[in-house]
Design a protein that fits this description.
By secondary structure, this protein is mainly alpha-helical. Helix content is 93%, strand content 0%. The chain starts with a helix and ends with a helix.
């Protein structure tokens, strides 16, 4: 019986040992899962930092592309203005001498217009004067008729 007791005892101790080992294994597995979850919980800040870096790089690329396209658009506009100036022979900007010459021409034209206006007024005045001379005579006839009536 002692052999049987020892076999039962060995079996019981083996079962107890297996139960103990299963508990330790469960504890180890729970620790591993907890560490995995902790690592996943710590990933978002890393993921966030990575996304911020990627966003910064994209922003820098976009700014560079915008500056490049802005410069090319500006040069394109300047080229178009240059072509228009060439078409109208306005390549050089106006100089002070040109402006002074234009002012003199405007002054001459203004004097001519004033002379023509005075001449026209004199002609109209002579015709109007003749009409005025006729008007008093017409009034004399009208007064004479009214006295006769």
């Amino acid at each position: 019986m002692s052999d049987e007791k020892s076999k039962v005892s060995d079996k019981a101790s083996e079962i107890a040992k297996n139960i103990w080992l299963a508990g330790v294994g469960a504890y180890g597995r729970a620790v591993d899962e907890a560490q995995g979850r902790l690592e996943k919980a710590m990933e978002p800040p890393k993921l966030f930092r990575d996304l911020v870096k990627a966003g910064s790089a994209l922003e820098e690329d976009a700014r560079h592309a915008l500056e490049t396209s802005s410069a090319s658009a500006k040069s394109s506009v300047e080229q178009r203005i240059s072509r228009v100036r060439e078409n109208f022979h306005m390549q050089r900007p106006a100089r002070i001498e040109d402006i002074v010459a234009l002012q003199k021409k405007v002054d001459q034209l203004s004097r001519k217009v004033d002379k023509l206006t005075r001449a026209l007024a004199e002609q109209t005045g002579k015709e109007g004067g003749a009409a005025r001379k006729k008007t008093p005579a017409a009034t004399k006839k009208a007064t004479t008729r009214s006295k006769k009536a």
